[in-house]
Amino acid sequence: MKELCYTLLSDGSSDKALMPILTWLLRKHQVECAIQSNWADLRRLPKPPKTLSPRIISSLELYPCDLLFVHRDAEKEPREKRVAEIQEAVEQAIKKSVAVPPAVCVIPVRMQEAWLLFDEAALRNAAGNPRGRQPLQLPNLVKLEQQPDPKEILHKLLREASGLTGRKLKQFSVNEHVHRLAELIDDFSPLRILPAFQALEADVIQVIQEHGWCFKAT
Description:
Blueprint: E1 3-9, H1 19-28, E2 34-39, H2 52-62, E3 67-71, H3 79-95, E4 103-106, H4 120-126, H5 150-162, H6 166-170, H7 174-184, H8 195-210
């Protein structure tokens, strides 16, 4: 096999920042062939589906793949509830004779920004000010999953790290820099201390082993 293709179906466009994490996990567990990643952009459809099962079906029609990642932020719900919702939506798609590839649930506690709040050097680089000296108060890694609003914290830190003021700060595109931050982090292993990340990694390992994807490029 020369290539493994995966599609990420997420809650919103900002969640594309999860893709470097997913690719890192696949690489970390011996998927050494080329990896093609797609974010399921359903916004271009005339009537984008709103519920999860039709969104899965549309994603697979537009972005066929070997592996489907389905993202839901846990927010205030238990992870188990989100997993059940995703599994039910996948089963509904299968009942409609849709060929659904292996599916992995991606469920950060609260929201995905929590998984980007640990690398200060990458954060400063992403903000375009790698030599900045502004003090940045990153949350304690152990308590990342307890933060009530990781998105607000991350956006605030990026603005502070930029060192910009006035009009330039107002023009600072935070979402663009969030995506850049995810691309700049080359080691997500510190997140292994978090239960939600542990669960994702375990699921990735399982699907790789079940489908014999522990291979090198041929």
